[in-house]
Inverse folding.
């Protein structure tokens, strides 16, 4: 427990520094604010277009798709605010050999890297997503019981774990291949696929998006949990997938740090 | 009573890097996409030495000698490929938090301060990272602000500071947690003379007040001479010398330099037999002579008309360093000297 408290204090201090850095440039700060709002609105635009032309999408009614889109915005916002910035920051550090000072801190090196940067305004998307989830749940007149809420919490935890693990795997690869910023861009683009229900995908693609790059766990499963349609088998599958990805990420990171060569000075 | 454990112990420490290489040009760049050629480089080869707690030790060596690689292995940043290192009883490569809280590394060419923020914000982050009590933090910060005279700069964004001001703040950021071992890698690089002096004084004072072990690498011989009682010469990854600066100077340039101010106008054939003439101009003359012949040289120089200000000293440090760092010359340090 002292370890957890120490880590939480570190996360709070590191995020504080990122927010202070964002506040340092006034024009940049307000530009990011406007962009944050645009990102949030843009996230919902394809949904409106799709639903104008179809009564449902792969068995999901319009308001169910809105619910799903809420979870999509939460994950896309989390990626933009909390994962992509430290990915770029750390990849740059690795490429330039300046990860030294981060690794010298007496905290878990992975934690230190994953909180090394933060885009506060991208978290607006998360708020917009949460608002969509609430509105959709009200329109669908959902009354989730404790079991559904537990499933929702579990699905969200698995989804976030999987998203972070994928980011860490990309980061671990950058210790070997120095210029992998494109991998982070690829991740950002791929997350777009998570805006659609997993049932729109068929065959191998469905398996890939459920177990390998588990977009289903991130958006479809939380929505299904709230709708009371997530079965126990799928929930266990999500747990195993998230745990496997987290384990793989841990091992990849440890190997990456061991191979870190720094830069000569 | 048994002797205290050394702060730093190296036993056959080695580091080998695998580095890719290719010929210049587009063709070889494309070829390297499919088949890459690697060479193995031994950056550090079987280094063995001990450093006691509170010692101030300087690493000297030409570029690429392995000094920084050694420092980074001792700080836990790089994993050794052979041998063993121990710092304050810890294996650095494990990077245990208990170890990292007791050491600090300052690199002259890298920064830990947040570029866009005043240094005070990074200090505060480090206070949380290293779990320094508020009272202790305030006292240490006040002490260092006074010693380094940085009151006027800690509130400005780091990007607006001069190199010297920034390095002072870097030192503070590295020392706020009170490290017992301080690794300094080229801390004064690019600084003007006044700033170098201030940094040296501060490091010496930190060592005196806190008994911290200091390990320093610097291209400025003056840094090492002013700060370190003991030096380790590393060349091509190997330890070539371990001892005092005086011992090193006499090893590389064993001749003593004898100089005098005098009314010299004619040929000095008699004196030339004593040693090598290194300076002869109207009003002064200097010879490098074997230590056994110093009395003879002194007597001969004092006999010159108007002789005054006679001096006997070692060769200037910069000459020793030029010879030491020259790759084309044998260093004459094949055998490590006991420190």
């Amino acid at each position: 427990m002292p370890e957890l408290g120490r880590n939480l204090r570190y996360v709070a201090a590191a995020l504080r520094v990122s927010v202070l850095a964002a506040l340092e440039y006034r024009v940049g700060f307000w530009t990011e604010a406007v962009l944050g709002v645009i990102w949030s609105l843009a996230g919902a635009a394809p949904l409106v277009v799709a639903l104008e032309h179809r009564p449902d999408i792969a068995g999901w009614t319009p308001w169910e798709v809105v619910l799903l889109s809420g979870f999509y915005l939460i994950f896309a916002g989390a990626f933009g605010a909390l994962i992509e910035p430290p990915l770029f920051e750390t990849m740059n550090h690795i490429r330039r050999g300046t990860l030294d000072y981060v690794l010298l801190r007496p905290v878990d090196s992975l934690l230190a890297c994953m909180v090394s940067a933060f885009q506060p305004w991208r978290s607006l998307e998360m708020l917009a997503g949460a608002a969509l989830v609430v509105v959709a749940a009200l329109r669908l007149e959902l009354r989730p019981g404790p079991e559904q809420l537990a499933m929702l919490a579990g699905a969200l935890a698995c989804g976030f774990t999987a998203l972070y693990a994928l980011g860490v795997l990309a980061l671990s690869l950058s210790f070997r291949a120095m210029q992998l910023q494109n991998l982070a861009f690829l991740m950002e683009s791929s997350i777009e696929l998570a805006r659609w229900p997993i049932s729109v995908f068929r065959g191998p693609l469905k398996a890939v998006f459920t177990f390998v790059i588990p977009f289903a766990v991130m958006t479809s499963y939380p929505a299904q949990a709230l709708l009371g349609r997530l079965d126990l088998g799928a929930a266990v599958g999500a747990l195993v997938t998230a745990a496997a990805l987290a384990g793989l990420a841990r091992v990849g990171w440890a190997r990456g740090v061991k191979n870190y060569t720094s830069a000569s000075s | 009573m048994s002797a205290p454990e050394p702060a730093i112990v190296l036993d056959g420490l080695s580091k080998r890097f695998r580095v890719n290489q290719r010929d210049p040009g587009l063709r070889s760049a494309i070829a390297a996409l499919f088949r890459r050629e690697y060479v193995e480089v031994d950056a550090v080869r079987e280094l063995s030495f001990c450093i006691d707690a509170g010692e101030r030790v300087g690493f000297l060596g030409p570029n690429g000698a392995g000094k920084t690689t050694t420092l980074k292995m001792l700080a836990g940043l790089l994993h050794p490929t052979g041998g063993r290192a121990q710092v304050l009883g810890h294996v650095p490569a494990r990077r245990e938090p208990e170890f990292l809280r007791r050491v600090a590394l300052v690199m002259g060419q890298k920064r830990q301060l947040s570029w866009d923020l005043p240094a005070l914000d990074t200090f505060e982050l480090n206070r949380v990272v290293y779990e320094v009590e508020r009272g202790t933090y305030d006292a240490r910060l006040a002490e260092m602000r006074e010693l380094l005279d940085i009151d006027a700069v800690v509130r400005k964004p780091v990007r607006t500071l001069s190199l010297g001001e920034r390095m002072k703040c870097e030192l503070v950021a590295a020392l706020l947690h009170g490290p017992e071992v301080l690794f300094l890698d080229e801390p004064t690089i690019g600084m003007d003379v006044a700033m170098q002096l201030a940094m040296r004084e501060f490091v010496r004072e930190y060592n005196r007040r806190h008994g911290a072990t200091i390990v320093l690498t610097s291209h400025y011989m003056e840094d090492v001479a002013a700060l370190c009682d003991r030096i380790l010469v590393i060349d091509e990854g190997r330890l070539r010398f371990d001892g005092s600066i005086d011992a090193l100077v006499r090893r590389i340039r064993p001749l003593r330099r004898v100089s005098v101010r005098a009314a010299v106008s004619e040929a000095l054939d008699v004196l030339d037999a004593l040693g090598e003439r290194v300076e002869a101009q109207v009003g002064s003359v200097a010879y490098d002579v074997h230590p056994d012949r110093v009395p003879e040289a002194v007597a001969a120089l004092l006999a010159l008309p108007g002789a005054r200000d006679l001096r006997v000293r070692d060769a200037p440090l910069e000459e020793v360093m030029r010879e030491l760092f020259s790759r084309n010359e044998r260093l004459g340090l094949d055998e490590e000297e006991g420190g």
